[in-house]
Amino acid sequence: MKFDDEMKSVHKNAIKPACAECGFSAFNVAEREHNDDIIDKIISEIKTSHFIVADFTGNNAGVYYEAGYAKGLGLPVIKTCKKS
Known about the structure:
46% helix, two-stranded parallel sheet
């Protein structure tokens, strides 16, 4: 998902609780401190995931890339987007 305040709220109030209810721990790479290149960090985290939630709100090109990468690894990709 794109990095902005609206999406932080969606992650905190919807995605994270939904994943927790199903026994998974969701996180956004922006929540963790690291010194890595952000793209390298995202790719690294995708490799160790059971699935990813990709939010396409705002048509962020990175989200399309990351979802495709996960799909190419055979990971389930849960797609979300703001209705409007």
